[in-house]
Amino acid sequence: MIEPTIICPKCKTEILLTESLAAPLVEATRQQFEEKLSKKDEEIAQREQVLRDKEKQVSEAKRGLEQQVTDQVAEQLKSERQRVIEEESKRAKQASAAELESKPVNWPIFKMFLIPAKRSWRRHKTPRPS
To answer: pTM score > 0.70 for this model?
Structure first.
């Protein structure tokens, strides 16, 4: 197995890396790598938090929009029901008026109810002074 070596930047000599020389370099490199990794993890965690916050805002906006749509539909339904009720009421009145106009008057029954009412009205009338 070939031993790792480094070249000195000043004197250009080759230095053999033994365990005792490589250990501090490996440790320093590992610490740098772990620091970079922890920074990346923190950035990712922050991004995820931002995404969760945005998702929460979107879901709240969606709920608000759904509530608004539900309220509008309920209001339209209420007004439409009222309109239908008014139209049907008008149609029913017209139909009953048309039915009354088309039926012949049953005079004996009409007289039976009308004449006693006129008589009782006359009884309660106060006499005029002469």
So the answer is: no
